[in-house]
Amino acid sequence: MEQEYKNGNRGFLFLSGFTGRISRSSFIKTFVIYVLIIFVLAGIKYMSLDNPASDSSATIGYAFKIARVFVYWIFIAQCVKRCHDIGKSGWWMFIPLYFIWLLFAKGDEHDNEYGEVPS
Fold it and tell me: Rounded to two decimals, what is the model's pTM?
Protein backbone atom coordinates (compact mmCIF):
# COMPACT_ATOMS: atom_id res chain seq x y z
CA MET A 1 0.00 0.00 0.00
CA GLU A 2 2.79 2.42 0.90
CA GLN A 3 4.48 1.77 -2.46
CA GLU A 4 1.25 2.57 -4.33
CA TYR A 5 1.00 5.84 -2.41
CA LYS A 6 4.57 6.80 -3.34
CA ASN A 7 4.03 6.00 -7.02
CA GLY A 8 1.10 8.35 -7.38
CA ASN A 9 -2.01 6.22 -6.89
CA ARG A 10 -3.51 8.75 -4.50
CA GLY A 11 -6.55 9.92 -6.39
CA PHE A 12 -7.67 13.48 -5.83
CA LEU A 13 -4.98 14.17 -3.22
CA PHE A 14 -2.33 13.48 -5.83
CA LEU A 15 -4.01 15.75 -8.38
CA SER A 16 -4.30 18.70 -6.04
CA GLY A 17 -1.09 18.29 -4.02
CA PHE A 18 2.15 20.15 -4.65
CA THR A 19 4.64 17.45 -3.67
CA GLY A 20 6.20 14.68 -5.69
CA ARG A 21 6.79 14.24 -9.40
CA ILE A 22 4.74 13.35 -12.47
CA SER A 23 5.93 12.10 -15.82
CA ARG A 24 5.72 14.00 -19.08
CA SER A 25 2.92 11.73 -20.36
CA SER A 26 0.85 12.28 -17.20
CA PHE A 27 1.36 16.02 -17.52
CA ILE A 28 0.28 16.00 -21.19
CA LYS A 29 -2.87 14.03 -20.30
CA THR A 30 -3.66 16.49 -17.50
CA PHE A 31 -3.03 19.44 -19.83
CA VAL A 32 -5.39 18.09 -22.51
CA ILE A 33 -8.11 17.46 -19.93
CA TYR A 34 -7.52 20.94 -18.49
CA VAL A 35 -7.96 22.59 -21.90
CA LEU A 36 -11.13 20.58 -22.60
CA ILE A 37 -12.66 21.49 -19.23
CA ILE A 38 -11.88 25.18 -19.73
CA PHE A 39 -13.56 25.10 -23.16
CA VAL A 40 -16.63 23.32 -21.75
CA LEU A 41 -16.89 25.79 -18.87
CA ALA A 42 -16.49 28.74 -21.24
CA GLY A 43 -19.21 27.29 -23.50
CA ILE A 44 -21.58 26.86 -20.57
CA LYS A 45 -20.93 30.41 -19.42
CA TYR A 46 -21.39 31.76 -22.95
CA MET A 47 -24.73 29.96 -23.29
CA SER A 48 -25.86 31.39 -19.95
CA LEU A 49 -25.34 34.95 -21.23
CA ASP A 50 -28.53 34.74 -23.33
CA ASN A 51 -30.50 36.24 -20.47
CA PRO A 52 -28.08 37.90 -18.05
CA ALA A 53 -30.90 39.15 -15.80
CA SER A 54 -32.12 35.66 -14.89
CA ASP A 55 -31.32 34.01 -11.55
CA SER A 56 -30.02 30.90 -13.27
CA SER A 57 -27.46 33.01 -15.13
CA ALA A 58 -26.08 34.33 -11.86
CA THR A 59 -25.99 30.82 -10.37
CA ILE A 60 -24.13 29.49 -13.39
CA GLY A 61 -21.72 32.42 -13.14
CA TYR A 62 -20.90 31.60 -9.51
CA ALA A 63 -20.60 27.89 -10.27
CA PHE A 64 -18.29 28.73 -13.17
CA LYS A 65 -16.02 30.80 -10.90
CA ILE A 66 -15.81 28.02 -8.33
CA ALA A 67 -15.10 25.39 -10.99
CA ARG A 68 -12.48 27.61 -12.61
CA VAL A 69 -10.61 28.05 -9.31
CA PHE A 70 -10.71 24.28 -8.77
CA VAL A 71 -9.39 23.55 -12.28
CA TYR A 72 -6.66 26.21 -12.03
CA TRP A 73 -5.54 24.80 -8.68
CA ILE A 74 -5.13 21.32 -10.15
CA PHE A 75 -3.29 22.67 -13.20
CA ILE A 76 -0.87 24.67 -11.05
CA ALA A 77 -0.27 21.63 -8.82
CA GLN A 78 0.48 19.49 -11.89
CA CYS A 79 2.88 22.14 -13.24
CA VAL A 80 4.71 22.23 -9.91
CA LYS A 81 5.08 18.44 -9.89
CA ARG A 82 6.31 18.49 -13.48
CA CYS A 83 8.92 21.11 -12.48
CA HIS A 84 9.97 18.73 -9.72
CA ASP A 85 10.36 15.96 -12.31
CA ILE A 86 12.94 17.99 -14.23
CA GLY A 87 14.74 18.92 -11.01
CA LYS A 88 13.46 22.50 -10.69
CA SER A 89 11.58 24.27 -7.92
CA GLY A 90 7.86 24.65 -8.44
CA TRP A 91 8.30 28.42 -8.57
CA TRP A 92 9.69 28.05 -12.09
CA MET A 93 6.17 27.43 -13.37
CA PHE A 94 5.35 31.10 -12.82
CA ILE A 95 7.66 32.07 -15.68
CA PRO A 96 5.30 33.05 -18.53
CA LEU A 97 4.65 30.16 -20.93
CA TYR A 98 7.02 27.86 -19.00
CA PHE A 99 4.32 25.18 -19.05
CA ILE A 100 5.03 24.76 -22.77
CA TRP A 101 8.61 23.77 -21.92
CA LEU A 102 7.20 21.32 -19.37
CA LEU A 103 5.31 19.56 -22.18
CA PHE A 104 8.58 18.68 -23.93
CA ALA A 105 11.33 18.58 -21.29
CA LYS A 106 12.68 15.18 -20.34
CA GLY A 107 12.48 14.38 -16.64
CA ASP A 108 15.39 13.35 -14.45
CA GLU A 109 16.21 9.69 -15.02
CA HIS A 110 17.02 9.09 -11.36
CA ASP A 111 15.50 9.96 -8.03
CA ASN A 112 15.98 13.60 -7.13
CA GLU A 113 15.29 15.78 -4.09
CA TYR A 114 11.58 15.87 -5.00
CA GLY A 115 10.97 12.14 -5.05
CA GLU A 116 11.30 8.91 -6.94
CA VAL A 117 11.14 8.59 -10.70
CA PRO A 118 7.44 8.52 -11.67
CA SER A 119 6.26 5.26 -13.16
Answer: 0.78
